[in-house]
Write a structure and sequence with these properties.
201 residues, alpha+beta, 3-methyladenine DNA Glycosylase, Chain A, 8-stranded antiparallel sheet, globular
């Protein structure tokens, strides 16, 4: 069994917010190996993407609106939105309060509740359960109502993993049409649970 699938450590109070207050690309890499949990389901983060208000692919680029207000909030809260009216996306708000930045959770390695994930996803292969941002929210039952939630207390939580940090590969973000040249996508080297297209390393 992968070292990533060991039981996660309990997080000291405020540790997630402290981590997420840093520069967004640093946060995106630091969250690799942490555990996302909702109810009976959980998975280890194996792929992330960083977004910052200074670049046009970020929702915060247009400024503070009703939709983007959460992105300008305190670090460590959830920014959840629906992409193209279909897929729910889970992001972790990063950088200090007032700066629009977030880390998209792109893929997980399933940890707990695999049978429930299969039921929700209608897929059997474990590699297909959480290998994309819309897939993982469906597998874990994460919905728009979780937007703005504190990820240190739940109901959706992100807690530290165990063991040494995994080797990480940086590449271009995918699924966007703006600022595609930025190498702000990060994933575990050799993981079979990341999204398929990895882009230019």
């Amino acid at each position: 069994m992968s070292d990533l699938l060991e039981r996660e450590r309990p997080a000291p109070a405020g540790v997630l917010a402290q981590l997420c207050a840093g520069e967004v690309c640093t946060v995106a890499q630091a969250l690799i190996g942490w555990v996302v949990r909702h109810g009976e389901t959980a998975g280890v983060i194996v792929e992330t993407e960083a977004y910052h208000e200074s670049e046009p692919a970020c929702h915060a680029f247009v400024g503070r609106t009703r939709r983007t207000a959460t992105l300008f909030g305190p670090p460590g809260i959830a920014y959840v939105y629906r992409s193209y009216g279909v897929h729910t996306m889970l992001n972790v708000v990063a950088e200090p309060d007032g700066i629009g930045a977030g880390v998209l959770i792109r893929a997980l390695e399933p940890l707990e509740g695999v049978e429930l994930m299969r039921l929700r996803r209608g897929r059997e292969r474990v590699e297909e359960l959480c290998s994309g941002p819309g897939k993982l929210t469906q597998a874990l039952g994460i919905e728009l109502g979780h937007n703005g939630g504190d990820l240190s207390v739940g109901p959706v939580t992100i807690t530290p993993g165990v063991g040494p940090p995994p080797a990480i590969i940086g590449s271009r973000r995918i699924g966007i049409t703006k600022a595609v040249e930025l190498p702000w996508r990060f994933s575990v080297a050799g993981s079979r649970f990341v999204s398929r297209a990895r882009g230019a390393a």
